[in-house]
Amino acid sequence: MSITVRQFYEAGRKALGLEIEAGADCLDHPITEDSLNRPGLALAGFFQYFAQHRIQVLGLAEHTYIKSLSTADQVSRLSEMFKRRIPALVITRGRRATDHMLRLSEDYRIPVLRTSLITGRFINEATVLLSNLTAPTVRMHGTTVDIMGIGVMIEGEPGIGKSETALTLIERGHSLVADDITVLRRTGDLAILASAVDITRYHMEIRGLGIIHVPSLFGVSSMRRDTRLDLIVRMQRPTPEMEHDRSGLSPKTRSVLGVSVPLITLPVAAGRDLAHVVEVAALNEKLKHLGHDAAKELDEKLIRNLTQKRGSRGE
After folding, report:
1. How far is it, in rounded angstroms, from Cα 92 to Cα 175?
2. What is the per-residue pLDDT across 100-156, written as a single tens digit (0 to 9) for each?
3. Catalytic residue among 38, 180, 186, 224
């Protein structure tokens, strides 16, 4: 998945302190690699393995080296780099672009950006930013909460009580991540990260009440910006098929962006405290992460017990 320099700039304007030195009208170049490159060898004239599809970063060493070259060499080396249609050039440590860079930016329509961050910190933070921007993403209908470090997305048909269940969990000290629409993003370690749509973050819609601002009512600890998705809970009106597996020995999963996420279906019934059931489901999932599966342990215990009884009867 590729992004544009404009998307990178908008996302990093505050986070990375990015400013536009030149090429404000040509920010639509694609960035197809989520890594950055310091073009030391290229500035020395070696372009055989030049990573031209990456954002190029000029740190203090590269900037000082360029200024040490003759005018002809500066123009020659920079021209060779710009004509390969690099996505953008970023100058760190608050250094300004040279006159040659500004002119080449205009000639080849390559944007030049700058930041006051030191080079190492910029590369680290920009790499994380690019990884997040280019990660596979999908939006799903569901309300996501964080329950003691376990990310749970509650889904179901409209009006079934997803937000009300989440509200009860918030009142019990857990945290809201997203209401109604959850943005799911696959990370590099093949995990799914859940977050909210920016425009609706911190808000919930409660039927009959309207829109509420969660941190104003319950404090800043009632919100989390994102969480790892560990469990999907589907709230569903009871059907005969839901009675087939009551032991939990046949766990279900759902593939989300190629990652299998545990899925449980809870029947909705009048008077049932679903918030408490969801809370227990999350704690049970946490136990599974620690290597304790209650259903399997009980099944194994029953089998051992039956085996011992048969052995004592000589069967």
Report:
1. 38
2. 999 999 999 999 999 999 999 999 999 989 988 888 889 999 999 999 999 999 999
3. 180
| Arithmetic mean of pLDDT, 281-294 | 83
Q: Mark 165-187 as b/e (b = at least 16 C-beta within 10 Å).
A: bbbbbbeeebbbbbbbebbbbbe
Beta carbons of 178 and 195 less than 8 angstroms apart: yes
- Whether 162 is catalytic: yes
Active-site residue among 85, 141, 225, 276?
141
Closest CA to 281 of 253, 248, 250, 258: 248
Which among 232, 229, 155, 225 is positioned nearest to 191, based on CA atoms?
229
pLDDT tens figures, 267-280: 888 778 899 999 99
- Taking the CA atoms of residue 9, residue 15, residue 21 and residue 26 in that order, the dihedral angle to the nearest 10 degrees is 0
The single residue listed with the structure tokens 């032991």 is 247
246 included as an active-site residue: yes
Closest CA to 109 of 135, 131, 83: 83
Any catalytic annotation for residue 14?
no
Model pTM? Answer: 0.69
Phi, psi of 23 (to 5 degrees): 80, 35
- Tell me the two tokens of residue 116: 């006051």
SS3 content of the chain, % helix, strand, coil (to 5): 40, 25, 35
* CA dist., res. 72 & res. 81, Å (int): 14
